[in-house]
Amino acid sequence: MGIAIYLVVCLLGAALGKQFQFHNNLGQTIWVGSLGNAGVAAPNNGGFQLNAGAEIGGLVDEFWQTGGPIDEFWQTGGPIDEFLQTGGPIDEFPSPEGKCQELISSLGNINKFSLRLGLVIANKKTVNLQVSVSTDDGWAGRFWARTGCNFDGNGIGPCETGDCGNKLQCAGAGGVPPVSLAEFTLNGYGGVDYYDLSLVDGYNVPVQVIPLTKSVDPNNKYSCGSATCTAYLNNNCPNELRETNSAGATVACKSACLAFNTDQYCCRGNFGTPQTCTPSTWAQNYPAYFKNNCPGAYSYAYDDVSSTYTCQDSGYKIIFG
After folding, report:
1. How far apart are CA 151 and CA 137, in angstroms?
2. In this structure, which CATH number among 1.10.3470.10, 2.60.110.10, 1.10.8.60, 3.50.50.60 belongs to the domain 10-229+311-320?
3. Rounded Cα gap, residues 174 and 142, in angstroms
4. What is the pTM of this model?
5. Which of 58, 115, 260, 285 has the most crowded Cβ, counting Cβ within 10 A?
6. Cβ of 40: how many Cβ atoms within 10 Å?
7. What is the pLDDT of residues 242-252, one digit of tens each?
8. Residue 114 clears pLDDT 50, i.e. is over it
């Protein structure tokens, strides 16, 4: 029996569920890492696999996935109410193969949430890991793609980029830079969501954040606009910033702060303000490489003006690749 595992992340606000969809457009398997603020537990305990071409998403106890044998799957109200496999008859209605319930401390901020796991067999082709997560609308955290991972049957093993402690589920650990980050603060100041792409610690893969339910303000591209970094930066990364694997291939591009760890490049000490941390005055303006190729992403610590996006009452699609 072929086994494929898919995950859905639902962030349920007090008034409106927050929907996050993930799409892997890289042509290779990635392992998405996630971390809530303060280093506490995150969806699926901080990690899940996303195969090449796969797309997953969810909203308020409802989920679906593409890119595998099952094309659509709905779960509403707790029990399984409806199942559809497109492109063929349903030979066997999905049946539970195992269930467990546990309470994990918190997701992002302070509220408890429950993680319900259930294995479901559909037509003896796919085992689907169902995960339903809910929290308040004030979650803050980040997602990133890990590449070149080699996990054993217990979910233990290293990743070439974005590693979070040699394990599939990051469990409160952040990704080791350089790594491209999609960052969110839901229901922040003024009751709006804040989101951005950060290359402050470097880059490993292209990434985009696209609001699902709102149109961009024609007068302000940062109001419900798409934060995008679609360029492949590893090939032309300055030699001194390159992160290579054991075979010598460039797998990521470091920031100047990560590569050299100086106060000036890291915007700290005497350079710890927007006025004193200005890359244009550096001997080598390394952030310009990232900004010229990915103008909508943070290229250094104080790159706020052209990198921070806001939206309200929207879900978000995160595309890697």
Report:
1. 33
2. 2.60.110.10
3. 9
4. 0.74
5. 58
6. 18
7. 999 999 999 99
8. no
